[in-house]
Design a protein that fits this description.
The protein has about 325 residues and is an alpha+beta fold. The chain contains nine helices and ten strands. The strands form two sheets. A seven-stranded antiparallel β-sheet has the order 7-4-6-5-9-10-8. Helix 2 packs across helix 5 and helix 5 runs antiparallel to helix 7.
Length: about 325
């Protein structure tokens, strides 16, 4: 989304408001798109928008797969994603979670989205049906309702309510799914919710979106560093807060993150900033090229020397 921001009004650490764009404070414009929480508060922005493809509706199908179908499911997803060439009208989002009414063991919930009609989506859905999911549901609804209809995750929905539970994520950016790794992740997740029932509403996210437009942007043009990744996975723990629950969540989350990294190529942690747990290194969040952190630290000294903006994934060492 940061690629489409054309201009921002930003309140910086000294309390002043400044216009930030490609032609006004361009270095701060670079930093705000990828590390913006370190530099100021956006009060207004101008954004590039696009016509919705194929009308206003989106087709959403939900498929459930059991653990014995893990390998065929992720082989299918690797074929669909195809090294970052997932079709522009398709989103493929899978969640591993406990659903006792469907299966006594955790299941994979495959959310398939198509920007168009069910008839237009048929070449994809027929392939998914050939994998023999254990249950199927689908609906067509306006794009603006996707978060609410799919995940109960819009403003006013329980997922977004404050104080209900603690959520922590352990994200890793990938270029392809390592199916053997995903089997280890399944076993770890099942062990966690069996040993710690208080974490039973946790889940593992396997996200894939069309990345062609993201990769078309010059990697050096913004502070976002992980454009080469085609997939985002996250071991996401959810629980009512207590020291024991927090300790268990951290233990299993770190184990899962390490498994994902060990199965990745290249074998390194790329942590999506919005999901980052907070224990990652700055390089893992903001990029491994030395010039990136050097530039961020220089800008931090210039725009926020006292570190007022330091709540979330703060840039340090400046």
């Amino acid at each position: 989304m940061g690629d489409n921001i054309l201009e921002m009004d930003v309140v910086t650490a000294d309390g002043s408001e400044t216009t930030v764009s490609e032609s006004s404070n361009p270095d701060l414009y670079w930093a705000m798109r990828g590390a913006g929480q370190n530099f100021g508060i956006v009060t207004k922005f101008r954004y590039k928008i696009f016509d919705y493809p194929n009308g206003q509706d989106i087709f959403h199908a939900t498929y459930h797969f059991t653990e014995d179908q893990l390998e065929i499911l992720f082989e299918h997803l690797n074929s669909l994603i195809n090294n970052g060439t997932l079709p522009r009208d398709v989103n493929a989002y899978v969640v591993l979670r406990s659903k006792p009414l469907i299966s006594p063991r955790p299941v994979f919930v495959y959310h398939f989205y198509f920007f168009g009609t069910s008839e237009q989506a048929s070449p994809y859905t027929q392939t998914i049906l050939s994998l023999n999911p254990i249950s199927i549901s689908n609906a067509t609804f306006p794009y603006k309702d996707v978060s609410h209809r799919s995940f109960q995750a819009s403003i006013g929905d329980p997922t977004c309510a404050a104080g209900i539970s603690t959520k922590t994520r352990f994200p890793v950016g990938l270029q392809t799914y390592n199916v053997s790794t995903n089997r280890k992740i399944y076993d770890l997740f099942e062990n966690m919710i069996t040993a710690h029932p208080a974490l039973a509403t946790s889940f593992v996210q396997f996200e894939a979106f069309p990345m062609q437009a993201v990769k078309a942007v010059d990697a050096a043009s913004t502070a976002y560093a992980h454009r080469q990744d085609d997939i985002l996975v996250a071991f996401s723990t959810q629980y009512h807060h207590s020291p024991a629950n927090a300790a268990a969540a951290t233990k299993y989350g770190r184990q899962a993150r390490q498994l994902f990294v060990e199965g990745a190529s290249p074998m390194r942690l790329n942590a999506y900033s919005n999901y980052a747990n907070g224990d990652e290194t700055l390089e893992e969040i903001y990029g491994y090229e030395p010039w990136r952190l050097e530039k961020l630290r220089r800008l931090k000294r210039e725009w926020d020397p006292e570190g007022r903006f330091c709540f979330f994934n703060p840039i340090t060492g400046y």
